[in-house]
Amino acid sequence: MRLKKQKSLFIKPELTVEELSIALYNVNRKLEKANQQLKESERIRLEMFSNLSHDLRSPITTLRSYVEYLLSFDKLDEKEVFSTLDQMHSKILSLDHLMNELLLIATLDSETEEQFQFEQIQIGMFLEEFFYFCETDKKYSNRKLTLKVPSNFPYYASIDTKMFSRVLDNLFTNSLKYSSSGDTISLDACCLKNEIIISVADTGIGIIKSNLPFIFDRTFMVSDARTPDSSTGCGLGLSIAQSILEKHQGRIWCESEANKGSTFYISLPLLKLT
Ligand code: ADP
Prior knowledge:
- By secondary structure, this protein is of the alpha+beta class.
- Helices cover about 50% and strands about 15% of the residues.
- The longest helix has about 55 residues.
- The site of adenosine-5'-diphosphate (ADP) has 22 residues, from helix 5 and helix 6.
């Protein structure tokens, strides 16, 4: 569109040669910038595929060796079989999780809004429901979950409840992953001018300052920082959360201090009901 406007500059007869060359120079710069952006997104895409092929290959290799291990026996010990199947099951779950994330990325990149079904939702009630759902989940049993959302939070926003739950779930899962037994995970919300601000805070391992600007990048994960239980993620969760927030005209950001904990903030446009 912008280029079209620029085109009209060139056919104006009153333009001097100098003005014309300035206009040409500007168009050239814009094209160069667009080209650089294309190259950068191509680089990110390639890096992501290379990370992904590693993330896919590693559980598949492990699964193969488990199967080969079981096949190597003439007679199988029942205990051994169950323990191997258990480990295979957890690898399959992580593969399943990765495939779901990839599918979601493809949906979010497709630029279509069709997959999103926006509804006017009272955010306080929605957050409470999400919180109580987590509270009953035994994976959080050794964390202190705290609901700080005021009990009478009357504000509305337009959200796709399924997609928005994925964002909250990702933040809660990260808080669990990057904290230890006895740590706190809290959920809070407030209303500032035209925005609802939701926060998920934990008292876990935190993020070092130099890594903070990159955590929402699609290809980023802190490779040297293991979670307290030595597991690692696939580094896609926060970039997915950011894309979902963009579709909601919202934002996501993080404040964190190493060894003290992290707070992730989400903003949503406040819906003014008539
Ligand atoms: P991953 O699957 O690696 O957790 P994410 O995109 O969800 O991918 O997070 C990107 C990186 O941000 C993680 O590798 C981790 O280092 C850091 N991170 C995210 N949430 C937290 C948190 N609550 N506490 C500490 N570090 C976090």
